[in-house]
Amino acid sequence: MTAAPLPQATILGYPRIGRRRELKRAVESFWAGRISESELRQTAAELRAATRARLVELGLPATGGAVPESFSFYDQVLDATLAVGAIPQRFGAQTGSDLDTYFRLARGDAEHQPLEMTKWFDTNYHYSVPEIDADTKFAANPAALVEQFKEAQAQGIETRPVLVGPVTYLLLAKASDEAAEGFDPADRLDDLVGVYAELLAALAAAGVAWVQLDEPAVVSDSLRVTREEALGLVERAYATLGGAAQRPRILIAAPYGDSAAALTRLAALPVEAVHTDLVRGSLPAAALADGSLTKAFAGTQLVAGVVDGRSIWRTDLRSAFAQLTQLTDAGIDTVVGTSNNLQHVPHDVRDETKLDARLQSWLAFADQKVEQVAILARGLSDGAEAIEAELAEVDRVLADRDAAPGVRIDAIRARVAAAGDADRNRVTEEDRRTAQQDLGIPHLATTTIGSFPQTPEIRKARASFVRGEIDEAAYEGFLRDEITSVIRLQEEIGLDVLVHGEAERNDMVQYFAELLDGFAVTEHGWVQSYGSRATRPSILWGDVSRPAPMTVRWSEFAQSLTDRPVKGMLTGPVTILAWSFVRDDQPLGDTASQVALALRDEIDDLVEAGINIVQVDEPALRELLPLDRDRQAAYLDWSVGAFRLATGGAQAGVQIHTHLCYSEFGEIIDAVDGLDADVTSIEAARSRMDVVQPLGDHGYSRGIGPGVYDIHSPRVPGVEEQTELIRIAAERIPGEQLWVNPDCGLKTRGYDETVASLTNLVLAAKAVRAEA
Questions:
Q1: Are 372 and 312 contacting, i.e. CB atoms less than 8 angstroms apart?
Q2: How many CB atoms are closer than 10 A to CB 759?
Q3: 75: exposed, middle or buried (Cβ count in 10 Å: 0-12, 13-18, 19+)
Q4: Biggest alpha carbon distance in the chain?
Q5: Phi, psi values for residue 592, rounded to 5°
């Protein structure tokens, strides 16, 4: 522990998928058997080397641990699972390499379902949920951490390994199916801390000077314990880790929320640096004013997360610098940092050559965030005058953004202001149930969530159209053929309610962003969602309106092909916000209402075209739930209100569906009920219907479709497996309410597995229907 303090500029992490998604392609090629494990590892090593070099080029010091080592083949929580050896017993003995085990946990195999996935705090990133019980055999496995550090050393860069901290790891875990009733993974904290101590000792022996342990549990009210209890667990764990005889210097990071109330206690721990998120949090004003914060940080560095790692807007550098000087004037050894790991933003705005130049000037992706950190650090070391030119340029850009045409449109704002309670309430549930009997939908109705596989042929046709290689008539003819094929396939399989398959959609948000005013889209703005999957969030920069219908002609065409009902498919207002980079100059609820009114107009047009079932997907409803419990009620009020504003104009005979996935539904069951959708489909297969109990306890009275087919794995669930899941659901949900569907859309799957899985789904539904 004789290492030097952290340099004055650092970040908590950097995108790991590659500037052109090189990691995605390599991982998927490895899964497909097209490249070897050594080739995959070589690609990963090259990406890591390029990242380190780029961060130094952008202004982070090459020494002192300023450059974080935050690479992952799939997921940082899964990395921690391998590092501590917490392989669930149900996977049996480890076979093959660590990487074979790693991907088996992530994706499952013919005999094993993969680890469950859920959202990482309030982000659109999914992590692999650890499974822990009293018999889980922890064992330190530092090989990957040491290997990456040694790679950096050979490159002439001294990096800082990053690992999810022990308290957050256990609070994100679930009790395994083998665990005794009442067991909580946090019960194993002391055992796990011992393994973390071994990891730290191995890192120190390898020459690591600094290690970063992420503990966002201390800022969240959405875990199994209160913040106060989480902080107590952190104090217990780091009393041991900080007191270890052989370890690197420790940086505890607390991203994604407000750690102000915990900051003094975190500083008192036997660690060398503490990070605080000053974008979603604040400084403890009283402790700063009375000097107690300065006293607490005597001998401890404060990494001030003043550059927003979750948005793509340029940081107000003058305001951020004022926060930093407030800390340094108080005598606190301050390091400039990001609010969180930059994995949630794209690589480089300079790659976006097709963006409007004025809009582009307002933006900052990961590389620009690093440059902003370096500028602020230079200001701290050399004085404000040394960066005055940069501060003045940002002042100019922010003023330009505020005054730009389209940012505020009076007519749109007047329509939002005029929307009242009557616009958010449909007729009674009973009236709707009676009117919708004319739809002729059976009990245990089968359907899918919306998308069908996006084949290479679909992607090739879309790319050819975008490049001008085929004309609009040829492209639309291709889409009509694809929709016809999907409708016929669903009829052959025997599904009750059909979809058109969404062949025309590149993404469930981007498709709408390209057709709504107030949005822009990127070419290379990819952000990891989970594993090898990435999304390209659109940029919501101005007031939103719908210049023309967006989905009607495709849904109308699909319905003309079949006598069975076809669902119109829309993405809901909250999800459009959650999966976009949204303007930060007005309340989110106001922006959501603008999007909702555009969707309301679309629903009206769908119904007029003869579409009597409309699904408005809100998979991100839980995702945006604030980590701070005091702010959750206000969020749920406007988010539920936005959905109801979008759907509130539908007449009684129109059946409104919604879809939610990867959420802890018990926390928001009142909000799910409050959406007032006629049918709600939800992720449930990996959790083996965990959601059914809270729904039953709540007395949920409308249609519900807990998923029986996990589409995030290539496995094909058999008839018996899906039948069992339907039976579990039917024990708590009356048959007239129960629908049978996959967990999510089928866009990422192949047709062979899709047809086999859906065929089994229909057979399973028929089997349970026959038992009634």
A1: no
A2: 16
A3: buried
A4: 79
A5: -60, -40
Q: What is the pTM of this model?
A: 0.91
Residue type, 481: D
For tokens 């069992």, what's the residue?
724
Determine the pLDDT at residue 669.
86
Contacts of 505 by beta carbon, 8 Å cutoff, 6+ apart? 451, 511
665 falls in which pLDDT band (50, 70, 90)? low
Is residue 112 annotated as a catalytic residue, yes or no? no
The answer to whether the beta carbons of residues 741 and 705 sit under 8 Å apart is yes
- Span 56-103, pLDDT tens digits: 999 999 999 999 999 999 999 999 999 999 999 999 877 778 999 999
E runs forming strands in 192-297: 210-214, 249-253, 273-277
What sign for the dihedral angle of Cα 747, 748, 753, 759?
negative
As given in the structure block, the two tokens for residue 541 are 């920069």
Q: Which one-letter amino acid corresponds to residue 738?
A: L
CA distance 283 to 287: 8
pLDDT for 1 equals 52
Residue with tokens 């008839």: 719
Bridge partners of residue 120, in order along the sequence: none
Q: What percent of the chain has a predicted confidence (pLDDT) above 70?
A: 99
Whether residue 705 contacts residue 680, with contact meaning beta carbons closer than 8 Å, is answered with: yes
The 3 state secondary structure assigned to 657-690 is EEEECCCCHHHCHHHHHHCCCCEEEECCCCCCCC
Q: Which residues pair with 273 in a beta bridge?
A: 251, 301
Are 481 and 503 spatial neighbours (Cβ–Cβ below 8 Å)? no
